[in-house]
Structures are given as C-alpha cells and as structure tokens.
Amino acid sequence: MQFIMEKPRKALRIVRTIRRKSEGGVYKMLPSPRLLMWKGRKRAKHIFLGILALVVIYVLFLTFDGRLTFQPYMSTTTFYVAYPGNYTIIMDNTPVCRTRNPFLVLMVPVAPRGVKFRHTIRRTWGSERTVLGQRVDTIFLLGLPSGEETEQQQELLFWENEQYQDMIQSGFLDSYRNLTIKTMFMLEWLVKNCKNTSYVMKIDSDMLLHVPNLVKLLLDPITPKHNYMSGLVWWHSQVLRNPFNKFYMPRHVIAEPEYPPYPLGMAYVMSMDLPEKILSISTEIKPIYIEDAYLGMCLQHLGIFPTDPPDTDLYIVKPVHPLSNCSLTKVIAVTTTGIDLMNIYWARIQDSETTCNLTYYYYYY
After folding, report:
1. Given its phi and psi angles, is residue 282 left (phi above 0), alpha (psi -120 to 50 degrees) or beta?
2. Counting beta carbons within 10 angstroms of the beta carbon of residue 271, is it exposed (0 to 12), middle (13 to 18) or buried (19 or more)?
3. Which residues are within 8 A (CB) of 22 and not within 5 positions of it... i.e. 6 or more apart?
4. Rg of the chain (C-alpha set)
C-alpha cells in the first residue's frame, strides 16, 4: 500500500491512493480523511454564512419601516406616537363652524400632495352643501409635506387654500405613522370650533361617500344623539404578533390578545359630544400609531361601545368592482380604486334612473 499526498497549497486535493489489483487492473481512488474533514468544514461555513445573512435581513426589516426611515429595533417609539404635542397651526381660515353651523362636518385626512383627490372630492360628494334640509361641510386635514421641494409644495398648498378655504394644516409630518396625530388634531379642532354641530364623519380621500344616505341615517330617530360612533365595526380584532406584518404590535405595548371594538378608519361617524370625551381620556392612554384601534381603546375606557350600522352593506371596505346600481343606492361609504372610479360612481348616484329595479350593467375603466 502506497500513500501519495500532494501539497495543500496546490489545490488541497489530498487523496489516499489504495492500489488494489483486480482482474482488469482497475485502480480505485478513495478520498482521504483530511479531504472529508475539509469539505465538511466548508459546508458548515456556508451554512453559517447563510444563517447570518438571514438574521441580518430580519433585523434590517424590523429596524426600517416601509419608507426606509430608521426605527429603533423593538423600541417603544416604534409603536407609540408623540402625542399630545404643541403643534403649530399652519393653515386654519375656513369659515366652517365659525360663520355657519353645519349639521354634519366631513373631515378628510389627505396627503399634502393629494391635490387631485381634493379637487375630485370638491367636484363630487364634497360639493353637497344642503342635504335633506341639513347643512353639510367638508374640510381637508393635512400635516407638513415631506420629500423633495417641500417649500414649493407648501406654497402650492397656501395658494389652494386661498381659493377654497377648506383646508386645515398643523405642524407635524404628514405620514402613515402619524395618522393618530392627525386624528387627535382633528378632534382638538372640532372641540374648539364646532360645538353647535351634531355629527362629524372622518373619511379617507379614496372613499366614495353617499352623503344623502348618511344624512338620512343620522336624522333617523333611532340614531343616538350622544355617545355614538358607527361605521364598519371590527369586533374581536386580534393584535397581530407577526413582526413582518404592517400592523405588528408586541406584547410589551399591548398585552391583550384582542383590541377593543372599533370602526375601521376608512370611514366612521360620531356624535359631536365624543371628541371632547376622547381627548379627556386620551391622557391616560398612550397613543399607538394604529389610529382606529387607538380610538377603540379610548372608547373602552369611556365605557362606550361603537354601534354597528343597520345594514352591513352600508360600509364596504373590499368591494368587488364594478358595483351594481342596487349597491350604489344603498351604500354610505365604499372604497374605490382611484379618482376615475370615484367619478364614475358619483355620476351614477346622481342619475335619477339608478335604482335597484334597473338591469345591472358594467362600466369599464
């Protein structure tokens, strides 16, 4: 038996040659123990590096939010928002609730750059001023613009507000993580200015609102005039523990497995006595960035439960488009896919022939 060993520096091809004479004169080459050990170490190294890469990616995902802005890993500030705060009022010259007292105020949170949505709402459901004999006004809520050319963007906002006088803006950064701040600012403004108003609806800018159906519901004698909040109510909504989920909430922030019941933030209406009550209790509840769930937490501390709508079809969060005529005649608020669909649905609502008795037809967009 003869052992042949090459130098490791040549390629680490270390083999042990076993010369075993057989009938055909065949030689068999077997790997040496050193080669097997080296290959095993190399495989283990690759596995270790792969695991390390996954850990790094996981940590990066947790430390950066969807806009790639740094968030301290698992820190409390990731889940709470800095409110209450002394934010400066940037724009607030609307005559709503000052020179006139509406029955209903529609508050629309919208991004500073959402000028197309604001113009579309002004031309459609936000244009309705007198509905079933009741005054209705629409106000847009904004924070500060971010990104490039913020000064130019702010100048455009000033110019737009001079034209329409239907925008209020405060000095916090307008972002998804600050929706709770925007909502609390809304409540503060309502308490200060709209004491003689009966109801307020907060509604997102991508929603279609059937204002007559909403006013009809609020005028119904069975609709409460106090301690009333309604919309598409989420009962037994689980607190999500998956850190890869957009709405992740760890146990050190909320220990309970479920949130208190709350209406979805896409559109909810409340009696005007609630804003002041929510603000008073909010000092005892540290606000989380999930705006509608936080309002549910405030309602729970007040001992108030949200009210389900009389029909589940009044609020549609995940509609199958296009909606039928019958659905449009019954709905209060429905999510749209954008400005074009909002215009189409608005035109159909205004058509006196849009009833449940007509044949269903399609619009392509």
Report:
1. alpha
2. buried
3. none
4. 31
Tokens of 309: 């709508």
Cα–Cα dist 14/35, whole Å: 6
CB 104 within 8 A of CB 203: no
* C-alpha to C-alpha distance for 129 and 345, rounded to whole angstroms: 19
d(CA 16, CA 37): 14
Dig out the tokens for 327 from the structure: 């659905």
Q: How far is CA 297 from CA 46, 146, 259, in A?
A: 48, 30, 7
Single-letter residue type at 266: M
Domain borders along the chain are 8-56, 90-314
Residues in a beta bridge with 96: 100
* Identity of the residue numbered 77: T
Q: Which amino acid is at 129?
A: R
* Average pLDDT per consecutive 10 residues, the chain (365 residues; last block may be shorter): 43 42 48 63 75 68 40 49 71 94 97 96 95 97 91 96 96 89 94 96 97 97 97 94 87 91 97 96 88 96 96 92 91 95 94 63 33
Query: Which pLDDT belongs to residue 100?
Result: 87
Residue 61: predicted pLDDT: 52
| CATH match of 90-314 with 1.10.8 | no
Conformational region of residue 339, where left means phi above 0, alpha means psi within -120 to 50, and beta covers everything else = alpha
